[in-house]
Every structure is written in structure tokens, then in C-alpha cells.
Design brief:
The structure holds two protein chains of two kinds. Chain A contains nine helices and 25 strands. Chain A starts with 9 loop residues before the first helix and ends with a strand. Helices cover about 25% and strands about 35% of the residues of chain A. In chain A, the strands form four sheets. In chain A, strands 1, 2, 3, 4, 5, 6, 7, 8, 9, 10, 11 and 12 form a twelve-stranded mixed beta sheet that branches. In chain A, strands 14, 15, 16, 20, 22 and 25 form a six-stranded mixed beta sheet that branches. A five-stranded antiparallel beta sheet of chain A has the order 13-21-24-23-18. Chain A is elongated, with a radius of gyration of 27 Å. In chain A, a hairpin with a 5-residue loop joins strand 8 (about 220-230) and strand 9. Chain B starts with a helix and ends with a helix. Classes of the chains: A alpha+beta, B mainly alpha. Chains A and B meet through helix 1, helix 2, helix 3, helix 4 and helix 5 of A and helix 1, helix 2, helix 5, helix 6 and helix 7 of B.
Chain lengths: ~475, ~180
């Protein structure tokens, strides 16, 4: 490429621009042809503009090299025994149909990006503001050499080879995606991820409906949901839906998938139903759900549907269970702990329970998590088990609910799936401060993002509800 | 004659090595960017059917560009040429002036080219980047961009022209730099 004419004449500038914009008229075409016919430098300048615009267009996923390479290889493989006439019509027809759908999607997506840019700034207010071109903020978690997570801005077209930890991407439209290493993926726009290989979980609010995850063999389109995608380098992919609904399309085969369902896509067969298996998403689902890390015997609940999570039992751990992702706070939310500090313990510092309702103007939203010890069996009377650990969320904690009555009062707004009533001591869901039992202890960190617990669990369920800021 | 599977395996390799530069070449001939991929696919299809005429896979690049040139020339004589070509007369001039061989120092690897482009994009002003983003990533025309950014369509085209001009120079400088 060369650019021998640093100051092209004004007429050429206007006509070249109109040509590439598709707005040139016949007189303009003739004038442009005459200009470049008589000036080799201008012809080269025109070629430069064509090449740059073509290269810029290549960074759009519709025309990306990766997509093209995959499609041409697939088509050539298919036409091995076909006649010379059948292939071009097949290829052209498919591309035209795909472009039509793409144009529709781009129009809607562009509006969503503009309208939803505010949450990105609000969500990352402790971090540098993204430049105009950024479509997401990435946070890299769990790297051995990096004690504190690092964030970076993601601009369209960015390809990432993730070799360690988990990366969380907060998109401008509100979508949250967590990807576990090893993985390779591209972020072509604020509405899409191309996953070459690796596991990801995503959650999409209403503003991000239509968000897509493309793999070598199929495309998932969000219809309002939480889902997981596991892609292999050979192009095959597994899709699961944890909540809501998605659409999966592979070579013209289109399926709608509801929560608790799974599909498998490959190069060699049509979409296949699979058992709902979530173990591939054990690390990504908590991160996408807002759980940044846990320690000790406090662990994230295994990925599953809200109904399955409500019924989940575990003898060995206190589980952190995501509840409603966003709900409107009432003017006064019953709560027990509002401020950083240590509550309960032996000897007791500050009471675990207190009249510390969360008062707002009724115009704020929040998110809810449950920390729950729910054993498979039943312990003997006055037999206790000791659990200690902590959980760090990706946003500040507003309030903690520790008493049974307040847990019940907030069930309706904080969870979409009621938890089963405990068979033993149904009136004792919360934590206890003694004196008949070893006291439980809760510490809320100064930055309000980490809660440390010491549960001395007896024959009943022990649980607390944690209310954090919303998206 | 190779077996069908062997032939597919060989051409698959050629596709991987050459598709990026071939599409780049086709665009340089004034093909509407929405049709570049179609013509590249046709070129690979022709190559597939004439596979036995290729003496060595190492020579596939120039051979594919000759095939693509012929396909583009054929477009000039078609009645629907305006759809695939920006302008048939301009394409004729670009064809006459285009080398089949790759220019020394030019970036052929698509990843490297994209990386170079990303770096060059960083050197544009915020406003230029915003306009480029709207045009090439959101697929909007000058009028739509102007409405959103409170600019006239003429001003948007001017910003785009200058951005492409600067990007071309920046890429050229990087090619020269990387080649030496």
C-alpha cells in the first residue's frame, strides 16, 4: 500500500467519500473516473481508501476472517460431489439471508448500546471511565501472580486468549459474561462474543436481549436469560440454559431452549438434545452471578436452575446462592446489619440481630444472595458442626438479614423461587447468638464487599440473606 | 487426480493461508465490500474445480489472484455489475494498475493487519474514532451518523475521508517498519 498524494484535491475527496458512502450520482462517477484516469497518484489514493475501508469492515464479525475461513471450508467440503451450478446459488442465498438478519440486528443493537451506556459508567465508578469506543469492561480474576483483580477496557474487534483465571466482562448494554481459561474469544461488538474455545456463562438483562454467542457450529441468541456455552476447538459446542430462554441456530436448524435444557452442536450432525450437565460452569457461573471469590467452607452453590438451587442440600459447606438479580427496594427493608464490623461471636461483640432496616426513597434496586447451610440429613439434638469462611461480592453490601422473621418477610421480594420450609425447627432459619448454642459470628468488611461467617450449625437450617447493590 | 478427500484437505490449507490476502486484493479492485466474500468464494470454487492446474500449493497465492482478477473482469460485462462493483469504469482502471504479485513489505497476515489497524486507530482523534466506529462497526451511513452526532453528512464524509487517509499512511508506515 502506498499513499503518494498527501493532499488530494477537494473534488476527489468529496467524490471518493460519496462513492464509498454509496451516495455518488452518475455525474459524480464520471468526474471521479476522469480524475483518477489522469492521475496515477489519485488512483492509488482511491485504492488506499478501498483497502482501509475493507480492512475496517473485516473487523466487523459479519465479514471477519475467522467466519469466512470457516464458511468457505465448510462449503467446499459440501460441494465435492455437486454440479458446478449448484454451489454459487447455495452460497449466495445463505449469505444474503444472513446479511438481512444481520442488518435487522445491527439496527436494534446500535440503539441498545447508546441507550444503555450509562449503567457501564455507574457500575465501574471506581475504575477509569471507558473511552467512547469501548463496549465492555473486563476484570481478570484468579491469576496467581496478581493478588488484586485488574480491569481493562474492551474495544470492538478485540481478540483475547485467556490462559489463566476467569475474566468477567461487563458490557455497556448490561450483559455480564464470565469466561474461564483456557479460552480464546473475540468481542466483535457490544452485542456479541465469538467463542473459539472455552467455557462461558452469561446473564443478560432486558437491555441486552438479543445478545449473541457464536461458536464454530452454532449461534446462541439470548431471549432474556442466564445461560452457559462450552465450545471446543473442533467447532462443537454445548449450550445450557439456567434461567429464561435462548435460541440456538446451527446451519438452518433453529431451536428454542428453556431453562433446565441443553443442546449439543457439531459439524457432523444436527442439533442434539443433551442431559442438563452444569459441571463445566462451576467457576464461571458464580462470577457471572456476582460472586467474586469465596474462602474456607463457604462456597458458591453449583450452577443450576433457581428451583434446583432452592432444594439443594450439602453437608459440608455453607452455600452462596444467588437469588433475585434485580428487585425494587421497598421504602424500608427489614434488616439486621447495616454497618461494617463484627457481630455475634464469643464473647459477643455486637448483637447479630437488630432493628437496622434499610431505608430508601423506594426508588432503588438491589440484588439478593442467600448464605445457607442445609444438610442432607439431620444432626442429633445438641450436635453442632462448625463452618467458617467468607464470600466477596462484586459490589457493596447494603444490608444483611440474620433473623428468621426478617428472612420470611423478605422472601417474597428477594427470591423468585421460595425455599422449601425446613422439616426440623421451621421457625429457626436464621443464625443464633446463644446462649443455648455456640454463637454464630458475622463480619462485614470495611469495603462492604466481603462477609465472613462462623456458623455453628445444629439440627436446623442456618441461613442469612445478603442484600447488595444492583447492576 | 487426487482423491476427493486429499483434494479437500489441500484446498482447505490453501484457503486458510490465502483467504485474507485474496479478499484484500479483491477489495482493492473496487468491489463493493458486501460482495468481496462472494467473489472470494467463487474464486476458491474455481480453484477447487481447476485444482489439477496448480503445479504447487506454494504458488497458490498468485494463481488465486489471477482467478479473482478474471472474475472481477467478468463482473464488468454483467448487467448487474453495479451491485457488486462500486463502479465498473473505476474497476477497469484499478485492474489495469493492479499488480498480481504482493507488494514487498505489505502485511499479509490478517491478525497482524488488524493489530496494526488497531494501533493506528488509537492515533485518530476521539471524534474520528467515533465516526469510524459508527460507519464500520455499526454499519451506519453518513446521514445517520450526522443525525446522531449533530454533524452534516458532508462533514461526516470529510471526517471519514481524513481518517482513512491517515490510517492508510499509518498502515503503510507500519508495513515499512515491520518489513525492515
Amino acid at each position: 500500500m502506498s499513499a503518494s498524494n498527501p493532499t488530494p484535491p477537494e473534488a476527489f475527496e468529496r467524490l471518493c467519500s460519496e462513492l464509498l458512502d454509496g451516495s455518488i450520482d452518475e455525474a459524480g462517477r464520471e468526474q471521479l473516473v476522469e480524475l483518477v484516469r489522469n492521475d496515477a497518484g489519485l488512483l492509488e489514493e482511491l485504492r488506499n481508501h478501498l483497502l482501509v475501508s475493507g480492512t475496517l469492515a473485516r473487523m466487523n464479525p459479519e465479514f471477519s476472517d475467522e467466519r469466512f475461513s470457516h464458511s468457505i471450508s465448510t462449503h467446499l467440503e459440501r460441494v465435492g460431489d455437486e454440479t458446478a451450478e449448484s454451489f454459487p446459488s447455495l452460497v449466495s442465498g445463505r449469505i444474503r439471508r444472513h446479511r438481512f438478519r444481520r442488518r435487522l440486528a445491527v439496527g436494534a443493537a446500535a440503539a441498545a448500546v447508546v441507550l444503555a451506556s450509562a449503567p457501564l459508567y455507574l457500575m465501574q465508578r471506581n475504575q477509569p471511565s471507558p473511552p467512547e469506543a469501548a463496549v465492555a469492561v473486563a476484570l481478570h480474576l484468579g491469576r496467581a501472580h496478581q493478588p488484586k483483580p485488574e480491569s481493562e477496557m474492551i474495544e470492538p474487534g478485540r481478540r483475547i486468549d485467556l490462559d489463566e483465571g476467569v475474566m468477567r466482562l461487563n458490557f455497556a448494554n448490561g450483559a455480564v459474561v464470565a469466561i474461564e481459561a483456557p479460552a480464546a474469544f473475540t468481542v466483535p461488538s457490544g452485542e456479541e462474543i465469538i467463542l473459539s474455545n472455552g467455557n462461558l456463562n452469561a446473564w443478560c438483562p432486558e437491555s441486552a436481549h438479543g445478545f449473541r454467542v457464536k461458536t464454530g457450529t452454532a449461534t446462541l441468541t439470548d431471549l432474556g436469560t442466564s445461560f452457559g456455552v462450552s465450545a471446543s476447538a473442533d467447532g462443537s459446542a454445548d449450550f445450557i440454559v439456567l434461567d429464561g430462554e435462548v435460541e440456538v441456530e446451527s446451519r438452518g436448524d433453529k431451536r428454542n431452549l428453556l431453562k433446565g435444557s441443553a443442546l449439543h452442536a457439531s459439524r457432523t450432525s444436527e442439533l442434539e438434545d443433551r442431559d442438563f450437565e452444569t459441571s463445566a460452569f462451576t467457576r464461571t457461573w458464580p462470577v457471572a452471578s456476582g460472586i467474586e471469590s469465596t474462602t474456607g467452607e463457604v462456597i458458591p452453590a453449583p450452577p443450576n436452575t433457581p428451583e434446583a438451587l432452592a432444594a439443594h442440600e450439602d453437608d459440608e459447606h455453607v452455600l452462596v446462592i444467588p437469588e433475585r438479580r434485580t428487585f425494587k427496594l421497598p421504602p424500608k427493608l427489614p434488616a439486621d446489619i447495616r454497618e461494617p464490623g463484627t457481630y455475634g461471636g464469643d464473647p459477643p461483640t455486637t448483637n447479630l440481630h437488630g432493628p437496622n432496616g434499610l431505608v430508601t426513597k423506594g426508588d432503588k434496586t438491589a440484588r439478593s444472595f442467600l448464605l445457607r447451610y442445609n444438610p442432607v440429613g439431620t444432626l442429633e439434638f445438641m450436635e453442632f458442626r462448625h463452618f467458617e469462611g467468607s464470600v466477596t461480592f462484586d459490589r457493596p453490601i447494603l444490608a444483611i438479614i440474620t433473623s428468621t422473621g426478617k428472612l420470611r418477610m423478605t422472601d417474597q421480594i428477594a427470591t423468585s423461587t421460595p425455599l422449601p420450609e425446613p422439616e426440623i425447627n421451621p421457625g429457626m432459619r436464621g443464625v443464633e447468638g446463644g446462649p443455648k448454642t455456640d454463637p454464630d459470628r458475622i463480619t462485614l468488611s470495611e469495603d462492604r464487599r466481603t462477609i465472613s461467617v462462623l456458623f455453628n450449625a445444629g439440627e436446623s437450617v442456618d441461613e442469612i440473606r445478603v442484600i447488595t447493590e444492583a447492576d | 487426480m487426487n482423491s476427493s478427500k486429499t483434494k479437500l484437505r489441500e484446498i482447505d490449507e490453501v484457503v486458510r493461508e490465502n483467504h485474507s490476502s485474496l479478499r484484500y486484493f479483491i477489495r482493492s479492485l473496487g468491489v463493493n465490500h458486501a460482495w468481496v466474500d462472494d467473489l472470494a468464494q467463487e474464486a476458491f470454487l474455481v480453484a477447487y474445480r481447476k485444482w489439477d492446474e496448480l503445479d504447487s500449493a506454494a504458488n497458490a497465492g498468485p494463481w488465486l489472484r489471477r482467478i479473482a482478477r478474471n472474475l472481477v473482469m467478468n463482473e464488468i460485462s454483467k448487467s448487474g455489475r453495479r451491485q457488486r462493483l462500486l463502479d465498473e469504469n473505476l474497476t477497469t482502471l484499478l485492474l489495469d494498475a493492479s499488480p498480481t504479485e504482493i507488494e514487498p513489505g505489505s502485511i499479509q497476515d490478517s491478525e497482524l493487519r488488524h493489530e496494526a489497524l488497531r494501533k493506528c486507530l488509537q492515533r485518530l482523534t476521539d471524534r474520528s474514532r467515533k465516526v469510524v466506529h459508527a460507519r464500520y462497526f455499526l454499519d451506519r451511513n453518513a446521514t445517520e451518523i450526522g443525525t446522531e452526532l449533530e454533524m452534516s453528512a458532508v462533514a461526516v464524509r470529510k471526517v471519514l475521508f481524513n481518517a482513512r487517509h491517515h490510517l492508510a499512511h499509518c498502515l503503510q508506515a507500519r508495513e515499512v517498519h515491520d518489513a525492515t
